[in-house]
Amino acid sequence: MKMGKAEMMLLAMMLLFNISYCSAWFGNRHKSGRNSILPSQATSSSCSRLLNPVGSSVVIPLHGNVYPVGFYNVTLNIGQPPRPYFLDVDTGSDLTWLQCDAPCTHCSETPHPLYRPSNDFVPCKDPLCASLQPSEDYICENPDQCDYEINYADQYSTLGVLLNDVYLLNFTNGVQLKVRMALGCGYDQVFSPSSYHPLDGILGLGRGKTSLISQLNSQGLVRNVIGHCLSSQGGGYIFFGNAYDSARVTWTAISSLDSKHYSAGPAELVFGGRKTGVGSLTAVFDTGSSYSYFNSHAYQALLSWLKKDLTGKPLKAAPDDQTLPLCWHGRRPFRSIREVRKYFKPVALSFNSGGRVKAQFEIAPEAYLIISNLGNVCLGILDGSEIGLEELNLIGDISMQDKVMVFENEKKLIGWGPADCSRVPKSRGVSI
């Protein structure tokens, strides 16, 4: 339908009014005090005309790398007034939490001052609180607040209380919103040497109710879709909502046997395009791990194929290099993966997607190898049985580099495709 100039100007003024109104509603403190700001009902209703959840999205840049930093993190502005915090991105857990001055019993060194909690506590019997408890018949020591304890696979744990506060988010249509959501105030952390990172907290992007994407979706702001693009050069981005080109993505189903993780399977292990005879593998895609882990059977099979394939090539075991369990040295120190990738073949997980067509998740040599600070090449796929993963196979950051990864919670699909992750999309009409 064509419109005249007057109609076009009127439409533009209406759109500008809607944007200003929505930004002001979310961006200003109410005069009556801290707790009366931004009720969740206002969040979903005030911007429904402006933010169509089918098309709206949030894109946030990433920092960090697999080695030597060991993690990827985002900067989120949280609180009133919003203050910046560095958060480790974790698709393997649900709760977003900050090290918190409650006061803090055990907190590690943080890049920013400890988070000062709001006094808007989530009640003990709230569904969000229930989703964090070990069983449905949990006991409330204090009905007015939600206490939680989370244990991670790498012997890391956090004890805290759940509360509501404001997240400052920039949507790709140019709108900036202050969105009220739950987060954890972590006042007692237990660290292991391998899990210690100088960060303010963790960004939980799992499938549970407290996950940031679940809360955004429940307020009608975005579709229940998250994704990430980790650059092998360092950095990248994460996104919430429809910020990807589905035509460039290969899909497989999320496993119905695992309600907590982004898990897929069964899969068959492929080495250099050849079947290894190792099958029935369940894989969890988890940005909370720098490296990938195979179960003991798959790991030993991989080592066997690797060592057989490296016979006669100018690489020798480097047991003195403790960077990772298995490293090799050359005639001279290596400076980049490009110098050694010719000696290694791609690994793949071949998923049966429900028909004759199989979805293949390829792990190129640069997605399972690192160059250590000693100039050796090391295997970034480890034995999961040594950290208690049992039959689980975990696909960590190293193997998801230079791919756009999409976790379609609504359609229960996991997707991936090649991408230039060093370029963070900024357009209002984002297409990754």
Keywords:
single chain; 432 residues; mainly beta; six-stranded mixed beta sheet; 5 helices; globular; disordered N terminus; disordered C terminus
Account of the protein in words:
The chain contains five helices and 25 strands. By secondary structure, it is mainly beta. The chain has a six-stranded mixed beta barrel with strand order 2-3-8-4-7-6. Strands 12, 13, 14, 18, 19 and 23 form a six-stranded mixed beta sheet that branches. The protein has a four-stranded antiparallel beta sheet with strand order 16-17-21-20, with no helix packed on it. A hairpin with a 4-residue loop joins strand 2 (71-78) and strand 3 (83-90). The longest helix is centred in the first third of the chain and has 23 residues, at 5-27. The protein is globular, with a radius of gyration of 23 Å. The model is unreliable at 1-45 and 428-432 (pLDDT under 50). One of its GO terms (molecular function) is aspartic-type endopeptidase activity.
